């Protein structure tokens, strides 16, 4: 059996959903299909959560935007306006209504998960009903019955033991159903042992596909994207991008870690552990080859890859009395970053200072700096770019750093990284 994953962009309107149907038709046996929320629904539902908790009076208005977006897709997909899916989606939205009826006394992360998860429920119900309507018989599965997590809402950890037990137990009999061996299910969400919905972190659907593939010993996973595969640079910043035909699991994790956003880094570990190949393919040209990620490392260094992170802040931390920054300071400094939930993109130390490059965050960055200022002398620079070049050579470095002021430079054998201004 195979696992397919379709992200938000691949189901962003009725035509996109129809296209997904065409792709599934080409492969229709023994298939588990993981689908994200449609288009920008997750962002839309995040707004609903914000409005509800901030009591800004816009909660109904924000919910209405999400509702109308789905209504229009439903209208385009189903000619029969009496199709039961209309009622079903209406009822699913009522679940959000219930959530926001109560006073917002429960914890933010918990509420977030209950509301935002509805995006994937709705999108999978629509896709499943549409496929059934057009003759592609499939089973809709609530993934919360099989992906079990702890109760760390918004960033739930997988209970692997339970999940490994439940996934094959529930899915294998469904795949054996005659002429109906396609399962449509949700990415991104799971269930805690208290039976509340949890989410796995933004962009978590890739990880869901990896978990299901691992538990089912899948033959392969395919992530269908709006790009031809993994490219050596984001076409947003570069004109002449090159598709990477084959990279290793290791290389994929490195690229994703440095910021390549095509796949989520968490998908790789479960696939690597069972040696399941991952294909990244274009939903626009489904017959094209795309990228395959597997154990082969031979082709990793064929082309240099560029990864840009914009809107970076470089913070330089030194002791107020000019003493060395030692292990005990570092442990305190890391503690502060961890308390604010801020990830460090790059760090560098010298005798008396320790520099850290992070993503700028409207709220957290200044709070963090104020906190550090209590104990250290702080200098910082914002509006910077962090560029990582994998498999660099002098020519690519010159191309990328041209007319930029370089604030930090780091090189290892495979990777060159620059924090730059300009
Ligand atoms: N819908 C979720 C998000 O937008 C999960 C995903 O798409 O992977 O983050
Ligand atoms: Mg998405």
Looking at this protein, list some descriptive labels.
VC0802-like; binds aspartic acid; 39% helix; binds magnesium ion; 17 strands; 2 domains; 422 residues; 6-stranded antiparallel sheet; Carbamate kinase; 13 helices; 8-stranded mixed sheet; single chain; alpha/beta
Give a brief description.
The chain is α/β, with parallel strands linked by helices and 422 residues long.
General description of the model:
- The chain has 422 residues and is of the alpha/beta class.
- The protein has two domains: 2-218, Acetylglutamate kinase-like (Carbamate kinase, 3-Layer(aba) Sandwich), CATH 3.40.1160.10; 305-421, VC0802-like.
- It contains 13 helices and 17 strands.
- It has helices at residues 14-26, 41-54, 59-77, 84-101, 108-116, 118-133, 160-175, 205-216, 249-258, 268-273, 327-339, 364-373, 394-401; strands at residues 2-6, 31-35, 139-141, 148-149, 182-186, 189-192, 197-199, 220-225, 246-248, 278-282, 291-294, 305-319, 346-349, 353-359, 376-390, 405-411, 415-421.
- The protein has an eight-stranded mixed β-sheet, sandwiched between helices.
- Strand 6 and strand 7 (197-199) form a beta hairpin.
- It is globular, with a radius of gyration of 23 Å.
- The termini are far apart.
- Bound molecules: aspartic acid and magnesium ion.
